[in-house]
Design goal:
Helix content is 0%, strand content 43%. The chain has no helices and five strands. β1 and β2 form a beta hairpin.
Length: 82
């Protein structure tokens, strides 16, 4: 996440191909630094194609939504290998 020092609040979610929220994500910052935008978390992978979105409000009160441009297509369970 770039520009984290200008963010008042932030949440992450998975969205479907149309941009509708599928699930909220629980992420945490990797450090206490106000300029470090690296986060870690756990995701329950949905069966359908999805993207990750960062949704929040900047320090100046302007809302934002940043959507990762690349969609992720999960591999069906019957095609996974161990």
């Amino acid at each position: 996440m770039y520009g984290i020092e200008g963010v008042a609040n932030l949440r992450f979610e998975l969205t479907d191909a149309a941009g509708r929220a599928l699930q909220m994500l629980t992420f945490w910052k990797s450090t206490d630094s106000s300029t470090d935008g690296e986060f870690f978390g756990f995701v329950t992978v949905p069966a359908q194609t999805f993207r990750v979105a960062a949704v929040g409000t900047a320090l100046n009160g302007v809302p934002f939504r940043a959507l990762v441009p690349s969609a992720i297509q999960p591999v069906p369970a019957d095609r996974k290998t161990n």
